[in-house]
Amino acid sequence: MKLARAAAALAVAFGCLAAHAQDRITFKVIGQPAATGMVQKNKEKPFFDEFAQRTGLPINADYKPIDQLGIKDTEQLRVMKAGLFDIVSLRVSQNSRDEPTLLGLDLVGAAPDYDAARKVYDAYFDTLDQRLQKQFQVKLLGAWPFGPQMLFCKKPLTQLSDLKGMKVRVYDQNLAKFIESVGGTPVPLAFTEVHQSLSLGVVDCGITGPSSANSSNWPEVTTHQYPLGFQMALNAYAITLKAWNRLKPEEQKKVVAAFKTLTDDIWVYSKELTQDALNCNAGKDPCTTGKKFKLVDVAVKPEDINTVRKAVAAISVPTWAEICDKANPTCSADWKKTVGKALNIQ
After folding, report:
1. Are 69 and 27 found together in one domain?
2. Where is the signal peptide (predicted)?
3. FRET label pair with 18: which of 8, 33, 84, 112, CA 20 to 30 Å apart?
4. Which domain-ending residue is among 274, 292, 325?
């Protein structure tokens, strides 16, 4: 009798375990390129590796950096809409051709520093979330910056006007228009192609954040860094509505809270990395997170800061609005009511 009861108890226990195993969800996740460096390695990957622990939910994350998947970073919204992945570390500028509304997070000159970028993010979040849900059936979970995007050149550079006649790697149409305005020739390239392109002379300069440049060894093939911020390279986390709707309301709250903790942490970490990487690239101390190189650290000209600031109203918003309003009729008007109001830009 005792044996029968013990067997019954074991059967119940195994039944509960089996049910629990069936209850576990695994989300397929696209991460940032591993080549981009510290944020991906030290913040993003650990978060998804420990997803169940970080969210407090029976959910695992099958996480892969995008440069290990054979998927272009310009195709992320499409693969989510097709249901191939559940959560994506969304490269904002790179996906703006598919959804121009995204670029409202990161127009050239609108957010050249962390404080301004946070204002843009807070003001624009709901507008962008609603658009992504409507067009791509994905929900925005948060966003964070790689940091100020600046010039790295293999030719001497003292100011923006020196770009005249130079070929400059860019990653979105807004930045391309700005580079044209100061006399440079914009060349769109994926991040992973830039080191070789600089080495071979396909481009004379590239634009990225100092930490990403350090992680990908751009200073091996460049000589000057010009720490004038054009954009902040905001990136976002998004989840498909199909995956989102599998969760109960209280589970959704836990997921949102976990992503807020992650993105808030990255905002702080990004700022620390930026200053440290600038030091490392120029061979200065303190340099604690990167490799030391010997780039010439060019002093930023006040008139160039003014040029970037003026570019928002003169170049960025009009160029973007023309494209975005064709895809989304209320695009620029929504931006002006939210971000424009927060930054006093119309």
Report:
1. yes
2. 1-21
3. 84
4. 274
Helices (DSSP H) in 206-248: which residue ranges?
210-215, 241-244
**Same-domain pairing of 227 and 306:** yes
Q: Which CATH number fits the domain that encloses residue 323? A: 3.40.190.170
What is the per-residue pLDDT across 259-300, written as a single tens digit (0 to 9) for each? 999 999 999 999 999 999 999 999 999 999 999 999 999 999
Show contacts of 327-334: CB within 8 Å, 24+ apart: 327/99, 327/100, 327/101, 328/100, 328/101, 328/131, 331/100, 331/101, 331/104, 334/101, 334/104, 334/127
Encode burial over 297-318: b for 16+ CB neighbours within 10 A, e otherwise.
bbebeeebeebbeebbeebbbe
Q: What pLDDT score does 2 carry?
A: 47
Cβ–Cβ < 8 Å for 61, 48: yes
d(CA 67, CA 201): 23
Dist. CA 214–CA 220, nearest whole Å: 9
Total domain count, the chain: 2
Query: 27 and 69: one domain?
Result: yes
Give the predicted TM-score (pTM) of the model.
0.86
Mean pLDDT computed over every residue of the chain: 92
Domain co-membership, 209 together with 92: no
* Structural domain includes residue 138: yes
> How much is the CA Rg of the chain, to the nearest whole Å?
22
pLDDT digits over 162-203, tens only? 999 999 999 888 899 999 999 999 999 988 899 999 999 999
Domain that holds residue 142: 23-147+233-274
36: pLDDT confidence band, cut at 50, 70 and 90? confident
Shared-domain flag, residues 210 and 303: yes
* pLDDT for the residue numbered 285: 97
The dihedral sign for the CA sequence 45, 49, 52, 54: negative
Whether the Cβ atoms of residue 282 and residue 295 lie closer than 8 Å to each other: yes
Report residue 145: phi and psi, to 5°. -105, 140
Q: Give the pLDDT of residue 192.
A: 87
Tell the residue number behind the tokens 């998804």, with chain if given. 48
* Residue whose C-alpha is closest to residue 97's, from 170, 163, 160, 17: 170
Confidence of residue 5 (pLDDT cuts 50, 70, 90): low
